[in-house]
What does this fold into?
Amino acid sequence: MEKEHSIALEIFKDISFSKKEIAFIDSKFSKIHLKKGDILLIPGAYVKNQYYVFSGCLRSYFINAQGKDHTTQFAVNDWWISDYTAFFSGEKSVMNIECLQDAVIYQFSRENMNQLCEKMPKVEIFFRKKMERAFAGFQKRILEYLSQPAKERYLKFISTYPVISKSIRNYHIASYLGITTESLSRIRKSIH
Amino acid sequence: MEKEHSIALEIFKDISFSKKEIAFIDSKFSKIHLKKGDILLIPGAYVKNQYYVFSGCLRSYFINAQGKDHTTQFAVNDWWISDYTAFFSGEKSVMNIECLQDAVIYQFSRENMNQLCEKMPKVEIFFRKKMERAFAGFQKRILEYLSQPAKERYLKFISTYPVISKSIRNYHIASYLGITTESLSRIRKSIH
It folds into this structure.
């Protein structure tokens, strides 16, 4: 019988693999079930893993010295999440990751990632391009934060992430946009 | 006679290449001499190139809708610079790049980068790891901006980039730290 739920085929959609390669890749990912409210990462930990989100919704956030909560990322189907600064640099985490909606995720360690990349140049290319997009996307978001009014950024957020924006709390959206929940309410009233 | 100034050996220090590979890589980079004040990139351009800085100092910056200048990056020897959001996404540039000190840089196009990566997996790995470090570094800087007072960030900046901080104008340092030049002066007075 064919493998019905190969994570290799799910993640690396556009790459062709042999059956042997698929089995090898699948063996490098571990499936995890999370419940809403589960905590995946706290500050001060060594971060050996990144996570591919198959279903559900996760959030990474950072609490600054003044106690303010900054959402760095939401992740739904086909997104990856981790404290990437810690994951790539080997330093301890400064971020939290929590589950906002029951989720199925796949854990993928740094070591397994390196093994896979060394063995399969096509996977290496996939991760290089993914990093390029992640870097470009993150930088773009910062520049938008520096240049656009909150209302514009809110409208962009709900049109870019319709699924996320409908299913999470106002508090999380405000924290992602870098505004207070009061400002978010005002923006919403001004639209409707 | 041996090639004395192979840019391949300069950039990819830790990788071993054959002579043929070195010649191939060198042919993919074009040397450019810049004078202080030269402009390398303006907003609204398609960005086909990234640049490796051999000597001198460059700055990339972004001017927001309110006319405020945000320095995204300085680049001195062994750094890379571009409007990476535009370079990777294919969108038009939003950043400026200017030369702060006479510089020798090497232009490297997206096309040549892809060719080199396809041909040489070891170069692909180099660029993946470089992207990981760039992403981690950039995210770290944003989180520090959100969490640390300006004085702390200034002290970190001058200890991390002693060469840069001594040779550029206050205005540029303030723009990098996201503060006014007046605040920078106050911080400096409070230290000395």
